[in-house]
Every structure is written in structure tokens, then in C-alpha cells.
Amino acid sequence: MQLFDEESERVVLGTLMQNPATITEVTRDLQPSSFYFEKHSILYNAILQEYEQTSSVDPIAIIARLKTENNLEKAGNRSYIIETSSMATTLSLSTFQRRVRDLSLRRELMATLKDIQGLTLESGLEIEELLGKADAKMFQVANRTFTQDVQHIRTIEGEIAEHLKQLFNNRGETIGLSSGFTNLDHFTHGFNGGQLIILAARPSVGKTALALNMALHAVYRTKVPVVFFSLEMPRLELVKRLIATHAHVEGNKLQNGMFTKPEAEKISNALKELLKTDLYIDDSASLSSWDFKQRTRKLARDLSTSSKKIGLIVVDYLQLMSEGTKVESRQLEVASISRSLKLVAKELDVPIIALSQMNRSIEQRGKNPYPQLSDLRESGAIEQDADMVMFLHREDFGKPEAEVPENKRGLAELILAKHRGGSTGSASLVFQKKFFQFVDHDYEKPGQEG
Length: 450
Hints:
Layout: H1 6-18, H2 23-27, H3 38-54, H4 59-68, H5 78-85, H6 93-120, H7 127-143, H8 157-169, H9 182-188, E1 196-200, H10 207-222, E2 226-230, H11 235-247, H12 253-256, H13 261-275, E3 279-282, H14 289-304, E4 312-316, H15 330-348, E5 352-356, H16 379-385, E6 388-394, E7 411-419, E8 423-432, E9 437-444, E10 448-449
């Protein structure tokens, strides 16, 4: 198959010279590099320059411009341009335009595949780095096939009207995906597709338990598919935690088997119910941005065959991911990972909760300091990409139980430190550690616009 079509290229160029009104539509798809023949690229560029400066195009003006620029012979000479202008079509320009574009993309794809072949033969590249580079190159080609015009605000009139109507009809209620915690939903009104939500805490405070609670609520109450990427905890331990929470059986009993017969029945029922949900678990210890994108995209495609879509993605935790390619610094790597998570959230229209570590410098402010945005590990890029940043803080953390009043044990604050376009504040929770379960506490701090 030939990857060029001289006639189609000339028909497009001729039509532009005879009917300049078509230029706007053609330039959405075609660049000078889209033409296989160099003379056609030069001619196309001259047409665009003439139109930009005079708002009109005709063969004589184009010839004069090319002559002034010493490009007339390179563009095929005077007679060739006149002949090309006579090949204009009045009925099916889009057919020829699409033909030129598609052949250009095929040539670009061939060149990209050749580049990937060359990368494959480089012995110094790790497979993850190779796959990451190949994916980036293929994405660039694929992205050229989708063009989106700048849109006038009138084009979203129906969409915004429907959204405002929904907000009005559900005044103060949760519109997005509920977290399962009323005190938090009061501030967020739910998680929405395209959002990147960062949940950060110091080790052992309970951020994994909280994320699992949110995942459980989504699959049981909202009944949406949830994907949980657990880079630290094996899937068996993860499921045992889910069972302990759902069955309300102490977690240590699922470790040592010291549960009673009634508890065994509760555990069995919890497992049966869990198996009926759309919960997906990936416990790969090593997860690159490329792996994450491919696995979530594949699951999204698989679910779409049964008219379902992913409702929530959880990553535990962000700093354990890798970029899959060599980068200059860890900060740049985390920035790239954070950006990848945000792009997948937008692409799949799904909220992503990414758990995050905190800087060790937090310990310099005291024994159990109140967290702030600068405490995020590799914080700059994460804070920039995140739509929400939440900190889980427990006053009793690190203290002997005897030193904590009974009515204060397990009290936790979920601090909404950043909320793009919404209010910030603090939701009060209680951590029932033996069940790996958080529940609402009957206390709220008023929010402030942020």
C-alpha cells in the first residue's frame, strides 16, 4: 500500500485556492507536514500565510508570494500551481482531506514503530523504561486523531443548566460519590469524575483503613466498580481487613483464628457478600505509571461491554509507584506520577484517591504536630495536581492508652486542607482500630471557602 496520494493532496490545495472559506475547516486536520510531497507542503504554507495576511486567496497571489520568497520552483512552478487550482472540488472536500490526514498518520505511525524498534534493540534500557517510552510515542500519534475545537460558552448551555438543576434539587446533599462519612461529604458533596484526591497521614495512623472503608462504601452502598491498587499490603491481608470491617469482627481474630462460631458465620456471610461486589484488587509490589494506565484502561474497556464504568480508583500509596523511565530526581519522578494519575482520572472520568506519605520534617515540629500542605512528601507537584488534599490526624497517636481519656480514644480529624473550587474544613471521625473501621463522630468544624 502506498502511503501517499498525490491527487488527493492536489484536490485539497486546489480547493483552498478556489474557495478560501474552506481553510478554517481544513486547518483543523492538516499541517504543512501532513503533505507527503515537499512542494505541496510549501504551497500549503503559502496559502495559509496569504490568507492570514489578506483574508483572501487566489492562484495568482500565491504564485506572486512564492516568487517573492524564491519558492516558486520548489512549489512546482507556475503552470503546476494553476493546474492544481483547477482540480478544486465543490462537493467532497472532506473525503480528500480525510485521505490526506489518514495517510499522514500512517506514515507517522510507521516512523514511530521504527523508533520503537530501535529502542527495543538498545540493551541498556530496562523493560519498564522501554514500555514507558513506547507508550508515550504511540500516545502522541493517537492523540493527533482527536481534534477538539475551542467551544463557545453556548455549547455547554444544556450541560450547565442540567448540573445547576441537579444542585438545586439536591441542595446541600451529596452529588458525587459519597465517601461514606457524612461529616466529610458535608464539605466535599462527594467525589467526582476527573478528581485526584490525596489522602495523607503518618505511618500507622490508619490511612489504608480509611481508604478501604471508602472503597467498601462505594461497592456496597453506591454499588459501583472499585479498583484498589495495594503496593504495600498483599491481597490476602487486604481482604481479611475488609472482612473484619464488614463483619464487625476483631481483626486479630482473622490473624490467629480465635473467632467463635457466631463470628465464623459473620465472617462467612461477609465474604459471600464481598464476592458479589465489583471490587478489583491489584497487589503488584511494583507499579509504574505505564502499568497503571494500561491496567485501568483495560478494565474500563472490559466493564464497558456490560455498560458499567469504574466508579473509584484507590492507590496505596503514591510514593511506591515508579515512573518506569530514568529521571533526574525523585521529585521529578513523583511529579510525573502525580500528573499521570490526574490524567487517568480525567480520561476515565473517575475519582482517584491516592494515599501519600508525609515528610519526615513534620517530626521537627513536635511529637504529634498538626499536618499542613508542606508536610506532603515531594509536596509541590502533588499539591498542584490534586483537587483535594486530606490529612488524617489522631491526637492519641503515639500515646500510651492509659494517658488518653476513654472518651478521646480513637478520635480522628480528617482535615480537608485543599479543595479546588470548594470549602475546606475538618471532619471528625472515630477510629475503631480493632475492626479497621472509621465512623462519623457527632462533631464538625465549620468550613471556610478555599
